[in-house]
Amino acid sequence: MCGIVGYVGKQKAAPLILEGLKRLEYRGYDSAGVCVAQGGQLEVVKKAGRVEILAKEVAVHRLAGTTGIGHTRWATHGGVTDANAHPHLSSDGKFALIHNGVIENYAQMKTFLARRGFTFQSETDTEVLCNLIAYHYGKEPAAPGQSRFLESVRKSLRHVEGTYGIAVLCLDAPGEIVAARLASPLILGVGDGEFILASDASALVSHTQNVVYLKDGELAHVTPRGFALSTLDDVDVSPVVDRITWSAADADRGKFPHFMLKEIFEQPAALENAMRGRFSADGSTANFGGLNITADELARVERFMFCACGTAWHACLVTEHLIERFARVPVEVDYASEFRYRNSPLDPHTLFFVISQSGETIDTLAALREAKRKGHRVLAINNAVGSSIAREADGGIYQHVGPEIGVASTKAFTSQLLLGAMIALYVARLRDLSFNDGVEYVNALKSAPDLVRQVLKQAPRIKAIAKRYAQSRDMLFLGRLALFPLALEGALKLKEISYIHAEGYPAAEMKHGPIALISEHCPTVFFAPKGELFNKLVSSMQEIKARKGPIIAIVTEGADLPKGLANEVITLPACHEAVLPIVASIPVQLLSYYIAVERGCDVDKPRNLAKSVTVE
Ligand code: AGP
Question: Which of 153, 322, 413, 499 has the most CB within a 10 Å radius?
Answer without folding.
Answer: 413
